[in-house]
Design a protein that fits this description.
This protein has about 350 residues and is α+β, with helices and mostly antiparallel strands. The chain contains 12 helices and 12 strands. The strands form 3 sheets. Strands 1, 2, 3, 4, 5 and 6 form a 6-stranded antiparallel sheet that branches. The chain has a 3-stranded antiparallel sheet with strand order 7-10-11. It has a 3-stranded mixed sheet with strand order 8-12-9.
Length: about 350
């Protein structure tokens, strides 16, 4: 089944939007369906590029243009790389397109990144020591982008979401009300609410000083890092915004939390980060708190996107795991400690 069969209106909309770019399109193939619809676009001449049809209501045009500005500035650095945005023939970063009568979305295009995702590599036959080394390098990369963001001067119109106290545990978090999961029973909901209150107090006390808070990727897990010619290349800045550096670190290692080598991975990403940027010991002590925050954010993300989990299986699995983390956290123990 082709992309045209599964998503006919969306695919047709992307084809129309691509007329704005200096591309001669030969074929279009749907790659992924998640926050956005992501397409591989084959050109008549030249290599492929990637087109993203953005989820309606998530990023405004100015927020997408701000993402474009930051990623462009990153690529001007000599030490870090991200998928390069491609502008339209008349210099725009994104184009609005009507998917249907009442559904207008934005399309953006970036270069194709060769190689394979870090996640794909980790699924292969690599040793635990190699895994730990890749996470050390990922930690160093995170330190580099936080350094870049700390000195970069965004344009006056720059706008991105804030992964601050309200964005994480306020009344309307960026990724959804995780404590209001429809599948949760009263006991689970009570645990989630108590955890939210505790996290609100911790995050408020931690503050947003420049040594701990700034522009972050916010979703740099292993599927958003490509290994190309032994270099790490970042993709998908759709969730990028202002947030805690520790959240970026937690996101990077969260999907390894159940692996036997997780303690080594966690320590390695921190060591790599410190190769690029200071990380105070009292900040590091809060890493498990931000790992818990990632667990809850992912639960909220699914709650807000029921179309991605029509059977409720993923929500139920994430709910059980998140509540278990919360119970440990509320007991005063480390939910991602040695006995996890």
């Amino acid at each position: 089944m082709t992309a045209d069969d599964r998503w006919p209106r969306e695919t047709a909309a992307v084809r129309r939007a691509l007329d704005a770019w200096p591309l001669e399109v030969a074929a279009i193939e749907l790659l992924s369906v998640s926050e956005n619809l992501v397409f591989r676009v084959e050109q008549v001449t030249g290599g492929p590029v990637v087109a993203r049809l953005h989820r309606p209501g998530y990023n405004s045009l100015v927020e997408l243009e701000s993402e474009h500005a930051w990623v462009t500035s990153i690529n001007r650095s000599s030490s870090i790389a991200a998928a390069r945005p491609i502008e339209t023939t008349d210099g725009r970063s994104h184009v609005a397109v009507d998917v249907s009568e009442d559904d207008t979305r934005f399309v953006g295009v970036v270069d194709w990144v060769g190689g394979q995702t870090l996640g794909h590599m980790l699924d292969g036959e690599i040793s635990s020591s190699e895994t730990v080394e890749w996470y050390r390098r990922t930690g160093a990369l995170l330190g580099q982008i936080h350094n870049q963001a700390a000195v970069w001067k965004p344009p006056s119109w720059f706008r991105r979401r804030a992964w601050d106290v309200d964005g994480m545990v306020g009344p309307d978090p960026e990724w959804g009300r995780f404590w209001a999961v429809p599948l949760a029973d009263p006991g689970q909901r009570e645990v989630l609410t108590r955890t939210r209150d505790a996290l609100h107090e911790i995050l408020s006390g931690f503050g947003t000083g420049v040594d701990r808070y700034g522009l972050i990727h916010a979703d740099l897990y292993c599927e958003n890092v490509f290994v190309a010619d032994d270099e790490l290349v970042m993709i998908d800045f759709d969730d990028a915004g202002f947030g805690w550096h520790l959240y970026d670190i937690a996101v990077a290692v969260y999907d390894q939390a159940r692996a036997a080598w997780f303690p080594e991975v966690r320590d390695s990403v921190v060591a790599g980060y410190r190769q690029s940027r200071p990380l105070a010991a009292d900040h590091e002590a809060l890493l498990s708190t931000f790992l818990l925050m990632r667990s809850l954010a992912l639960l909220g993300w699914l709650v807000d996107r029921p179309e991605l989990d029509p059977t409720g299986t993923r929500v139920e699995r994430n709910l059980v795991a998140a509540v278990a983390h919360c119970i440990t956290f509320l007991s005063g123990a480390d939910p991602f400690g040695e006995n996890y």
